[in-house]
Every structure is written in C-alpha cells, then in structure tokens.
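Hi all, long-time lurker, first post. I run a small reading group and we've been trying to get comfortable going from sequence to structure in the token notation. Rather than ask abstract questions, I figured I'd post a concrete chain and ask someone more experienced to write out its structure so we can walk through it together at our next meeting. Sequence below, copied exactly:
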Amino acid sequence: MDGSGKWKVLKHRRVLKSKYLDVYMDKVRLPDGTVIEDYSLVKKPDYVVVVATDSKNRLLVLEEYKHGYGGFDHVIPGGFIGRGEKPVDAARRELLEETGYGGGRFRYMGRLSDYSTKDMHKGYVVRADGIRKIGKTSHEETETIRSIGLLGLEEVRKQIAGGKWHTTSCLAALLIAGIFK
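-- Answer (accepted) --
Happy to help. Here is the structure in token form:
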C-alpha cells in the first residue's frame, strides 16, 4: 500500500462503445490489496448546464422530455460540449440552440460529477445573466421541448419543493450558481 488511498488500475478495457456512451471494465487493486476483477465505469461526453436569467432576474426554464426519466421534466438549458470547445462557449451555443436566447454575461461557476464512483465524464456550470431572445431555436433530434419560459425565483422554489424538478445536474447547478441567495 502506497499510503495515497488510490486504487491501482491493473487493466482497463472498453466493453461497449456507442454514440452517447462508453462502458469500461477495470481490474483494480484496492489500498488493502484486494483485487476487484470487474469494476465498471461509464464515460459520456462532457456537458454544460446553463443557469440563465434575464434583466429581471427570472430564470429560463424548459419542460423537456427526458427518456431515461420517462417523461417531461423541468430543466435548465444544457448539453454536450464539443471536442475542443470550452464550457462557456458550449453554454452560449446550447442556450441559443435550445431556447433562442443569448446575449448577456456568461461566466464559469464550477464543476459537477453526477456519480463520481462510476462516471468518468465532467459537468460544468455556467451562469448567464442579462439574457434576451435573440434568435430561433434549433433543436437536435433527441430534444423534445414542450415549453420555454422565464420564471420568477420564488415560483422555481415552489416547483422544486413540489417535486417538479428531478434532474440532479440542474438542481446542483442552481445551487452552485447561487441563484437562491
């Protein structure tokens, strides 16, 4: 044992590759010497979540179908970060594509890990304030957005308390961005 508490990777192999997900199987040695033959890891593209408000401090909220969840959920804009793209640039692009909103000031707020025990990808939180409608939406084939609206923060709080928000990355992003100060 080296004292670091880190696991030693003895073997790392990809067992599934798809457009949106790779699965890896590692053989690892734990600090106490125990060997685990089949420790699985998941790699998805890195993503950005955008906490966007207008000049009246209303939050931009979408009702979007989430297939894994099996229904529509209240979420904030976000999506995959392209190869070589910076999180703030991805935030600008995703905000415009999903909602038609843009402008304002964008700033990086922090990083997320959905499930750090198994997930290898990273999430990034970007805050955009002073946004306004500047263009048309351009949804991807997997995006079914029922509504896009600006909501007061008290209404958002009520929705969260009422169980209308389920996507952990969106809830965590609101906290990281300090939206409810």
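A couple of things your group might point at:
DSSP finds three helices and twelve strands in the chain.
The mean pLDDT is 95.
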